Amino acid sequence: MIYLIRFIFTAFFVMCFYSCKSQSAAEVYKNEQTVISDTAFVNLKEYSVDFVYDMKYATTDNFLKAKVYDCAECYLRLKTVKALIAANIEFIEKGYRIKLFDCYRPLAIQKRMWKIVPNPQYVADPAKGSIHNRGGAVDITLVDKNGKELDMGTPFDFFGAEAGHNYANLPKKIKNNRKFLKKIMDKHHFKALDSEWWHYNLQSALKDKVANTKWDCE
């Protein structure tokens, strides 16, 4: 048995030696040290399976009444993904999880949305770009263990005073649901948009560049 083990070890060593022989020591070291930048765009699904998705702009079920994404994917900068996963872990510990409506939005899509609704009250002017175009914003809600959305008082993308965090004329349960979402997102460095209970910006992403990186649809 011991001879068989030695043979396997020796064969593995020889294979490794010849497969690495063409690489210099510097190249091997460089490959080992390769890491993904915090500002790189990544697919959230490749980092966690614990989110729920309802990517509205990949459907016609949105205020534009138009499908503007070719397919439903949630790309974000890696640092946004890390912070979002940390927040979701805390929600899961309390019996909930994050449901996503929108993530990174390429500038070309922002222009398409602006063409449909050229109103800065509803769509950010692509000349300036939004934090969605920077990969640092998410539109979200929470669902319970049965997948039922918590009552936040209005639907996603409801453009009225009732959607604001400071709107007072709401039942206590709805106010508490919004506060619960906001408290944990704040803890993980996401800042709420006052007029939209669903919108959160990663604070460190505010200075990132507007991007037009696109993803492939399978």
TrEMBL record:
<feature type="site" description="Transition state stabilizer">
    <location>
        <position position="105"/>
    </location>
</feature>
<comment type="similarity">
    <text>Belongs to the peptidase M15D family.</text>
</comment>
<dbReference type="InterPro" id="IPR009045">
    <property type="entry name" value="Zn_M74/Hedgehog-like"/>
</dbReference>
<dbReference type="Pfam" id="PF01427">
    <property type="entry name" value="Peptidase_M15"/>
</dbReference>
<keyword id="KW-0645">Protease</keyword>
<feature type="binding site">
    <location>
        <position position="139"/>
    </location>
    <ligand>
        <name>Zn(2+)</name>
    </ligand>
</feature>
<keyword id="KW-0862">Zinc</keyword>
<protein>
    <recommendedName>
        <fullName>D-alanyl-D-alanine dipeptidase</fullName>
        <ecNumber>3.4.13.22</ecNumber>
    </recommendedName>
</protein>
<feature type="active site" description="Proton donor/acceptor">
    <location>
        <position position="196"/>
    </location>
</feature>
<feature type="binding site">
    <location>
        <position position="132"/>
    </location>
    <ligand>
        <name>Zn(2+)</name>
    </ligand>
</feature>
<keyword id="KW-0961">Cell wall biogenesis/degradation</keyword>
<feature type="binding site">
    <location>
        <position position="199"/>
    </location>
    <ligand>
        <name>Zn(2+)</name>
    </ligand>
</feature>
<comment type="function">
    <text>Catalyzes hydrolysis of the D-alanyl-D-alanine dipeptide.</text>
</comment>
<dbReference type="InterPro" id="IPR000755">
    <property type="entry name" value="A_A_dipeptidase"/>
</dbReference>
<keyword id="KW-0479">Metal-binding</keyword>
<keyword id="KW-0224">Dipeptidase</keyword>
<keyword id="KW-0482">Metalloprotease</keyword>
<feature type="signal peptide">
    <location>
        <begin position="1"/>
        <end position="25"/>
    </location>
</feature>
<keyword id="KW-0732">Signal</keyword>
<keyword id="KW-0378">Hydrolase</keyword>
